[in-house]
Write a structure and sequence with these properties.
Elements lengths: L15 H7 L17 E3 L19 E3 L4 E5 L6 E6 L6 E5 L2 E5 L6 E5 L7 E6 L3 E9 L20 E5 L12 H7 L4 E5 L7 H13 L19 H10 L4 H15 L3 E4 L9 H14 L9 H7 L6 E5 L5 E3 L14 H10 L8 H7 L19 E7 L30 H16 L7 H7 L9 H16 L6 H6 L4
Helix pairs in contact: 2-8, 3-8, 4-6, 5-6, 5-7, 10-12
């Protein structure tokens, strides 16, 4: 819940023409057969209301009861069905000629069913739970339009975990971060603190915007209600009113760090950017979490489920120490020459319900004084971060979050993301092969990871150091740095 400040006039970027440009009619390639409007939607209970699912309006929807069916009939084989729901899917099936395919198990709010294997002109969709369908699109042979969302599961392991409080914060205060990461080939997982399940249009905007900027792995929707406050104590009190302990909030953040094992965690300004208490709570709980996630003694349930994970680098927006300034104004080949700023603004334009707020003016400027680059944004600059915590050394001023990261993790010979006894065994085997004159099996990256004492060769001593490190940290629940292990100083 944002604290809204009404603008004195609407910006040129969000005039009726601007909004129309941001939401053009669906353009389908000549190679694609979209069957949405020509398809018959046969519903014996409510035959006159099915138009609500194909009116290109996410604010209108059609309600299905559990077990309710709708039959889709076309004059050619149906290969795909895309649907947008008013809340996370409870599961649905598609049947043709006594063959049934199951979909929706992931709970995606925008879902796609590939039904090409059925080869049928007529299919029946059955909903497992009460379901409100805002949009339904049907496709035949050919490549899907770019705006059809075929989401992939969350990353198993992320390079960056972005802890955004509300949907649209990722395109505002973290402006540029997602497109910059994707352009570099990095895996970024967006983790929201609050959810907007009570405002379906906000959820549609969230997914439309992430898809627009190129994200393809589904985000994590937070378990906490959207609440407004102006201080951290007030935010904690709001959570308490909702029956949520602050310890459980920290536990959630720890679980997310352990689940996705990011090389870099990114959080909000500790002062909540413009003072939002929930931004403060998200940042504060994350800063607590990164100091605990590497120790399995804390929040043992998530440690048992995912294992412990000590995040190498944590950046906090506007943090005052160890600062770096990101450049989001460089043309990116990945986006056809657009800058990360421009791509983020395209994503933010999908948040139609938020265009009247002061955030639009903050990010885009006025009609007579437009902002066209991230570097032009002064207050709450989206380019400025501070390195709050690092296990891989301080930044040296090259303004790259991945400094010291784009190298093999010390001791992680099997490249699993965690230093374990298996790494020690692999290193010992490699050392034995070298001694015997056999051909080494390690890649260059594995050699760099296994050579923990930096002797220039993989040896049995490296294997012993790796074993000690893994026992102390992964098994023993301590936080012993490599320099102590190599020096034998771990009593």
């Amino acid at each position: 819940m944002k604290k809204m400040k009404t603008l004195s006039f609407l910006l040129a970027a969000v005039t009726a023409a601007g909004i129309a440009a941001a939401y053009p009619a669906v353009q389908v390639s000549a190679d694609v057969t979209e069957l949405t409007q020509s398809a018959e939607l046969l519903d014996t209970l409510y035959p006159f209301n099915t138009y609500l699912m194909r009116d290109n309006n996410e604010n209108t929807y059609f309600c299905f009861a559990a077990g309710h069916t709708v039959t889709i009939a076309c004059d050619q084989p149906i290969t795909g069905i895309a649907m947008k729901f008013q809340k996370p899917s409870g599961g649905w099936t598609v049947t043709a000629d006594d063959r049934t395919l199951e979909f929706g198990q992931q709970g995606y709010q925008h879902d796609f069913a590939d039904v090409s294997e059925l080869g049928a002109n007529r299919v029946t969709v059955t909903f497992s739970a009460p379901t409100d369908v805002a949009e339904l699109r049907v496709f035949g042979e050919g490549e899907l339009p770019d705006d059809v969302q075929v989401w992939q599961p969350c990353h198993e392991k992320a390079d960056i975990a972005l802890f955004s409080t509300h949907n649209d914060d990722e395109h505002l205060f973290f402006l540029g971060l997602i497109p910059d990461a994707l352009a570099r080939g990095k895996k970024i997982e967006v983790i929201y603190f609050a959810n907007h399940y009570g405002e379906p249009i906000r959820m549609h905007e969230l997914l439309n915007a992430l898809w627009k900027v190129g994200l393809r792995n589904y985000p994590v929707m937070g378990p906490f209600p959207d609440q407004y406050s102006e201080t951290l104590p007030a935010a904690k009190q709001n959570l308490a009113y909702a029956g949520i302990s602050y310890d459980s909030v920290i536990g959630y953040q720890v679980a997310m760090l352990r689940r996705f094992r990011p090389e870099i965690a990114v959080g909000h300004d500790i002062n909540g950017e413009y003072g939002h208490g929930q931004h403060r709570a998200n940042s504060d709980s994350l800063m607590n979490a990164v100091n605990l996630s590497g120790n399995p003694a804390y929040y043992p349930d998530s440690a048992a489920q995912y294992g412990a994970w000590d995040v190498p680098k944590t950046y906090i927006h506007l943090w005052g120490q160890n600062r770096l300034v990101m450049n989001y104004d460089i043309p990116l080949d990945y986006y056809g020459g657009k800058t990360a700023y421009q791509v983020s603004m395209e994503g933010y334009a999908c948040h139609n319900s938020q265009q009247y707020t002061w955030f639009t003016q903050w990010a885009r400027g006025y009609a007579r004084a437009p902002i066209t680059a991230a570097s032009q944004i002064g207050v709450y600059s989206p380019c400025i971060y501070g390195l709050y915590r690092s296990t891989v050394g301080l930044d040296t001023g090259i303004n790259d979050m991945f400094e010291h990261i784009d190298t093999p993790r010390l001791g992680d010979a099997d490249e699993s993301g965690t230093v374990t006894a298996a790494d020690a065994q692999m290193t010992l085997t490699e050392a034995a092969m070298i001694i015997s004159g056999s051909d080494p099996a390690f890649t260059d990256a594995q050699n760099k990871a296994a050579d923990v004492d930096l002797s220039g060769a993989v040896t049995a001593a490296d294997a012993q150091h790796i074993l000690v490190y893994s026992v102390l940290n992964a098994v023993g629940g301590q936080s012993v740095p490599w320099e102590n292990v190599l020096a034998g100083n771990y009593e």
